[in-house]
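Meet the record:
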Amino acid sequence: MSQFDKVMIFIDGSNIYRSCRELNFKMSYEKFLSILRKDRNVIRIYYYSGIKTKHQNEEKFFKMLKILGVDIKTKLLKKRYVTCQSCGKKAKTYVEKGIDASLSTDLLWHAFQKSYDTGIVVSADADYIPPIERVRDLGRRVELWAFKHTLGRELKGKADTVNYIDDVLDKIQYP
């Protein structure tokens, strides 16, 4: 890949958030994006996330991402009620709907439009296997960034390049 190849970055925000939380790790997106950008011709960066409502913390986080040049795509989380099998009590929960589809659609659309030569997908979600396969069928390269503990063999085998976020934890830790 040359420094003139066009690169687009697609970040599954919820996937990365959950992985960081499991590791009790706070990521500096500024530092992480710097590593992803390297000396490359990055055309656009997308961040996909489900949101409950507009909370103060989310607004501050999204404002920081916008300052870093990231386009944010959100969808409202859907409210669901689940019943505890032990006690029968109902509890409210929120589920993400449409985020994977949005990221997949943009990944495919921009590949079809030849907007990028290399698409960087930041996620370990196996739902991205079909779109990654189609992107590669279109002659585009796919670089995958994920945490080792979340990345399955199936997804790992579909990308041209796999990078582990774990390998750069010391460089991207939030102060």
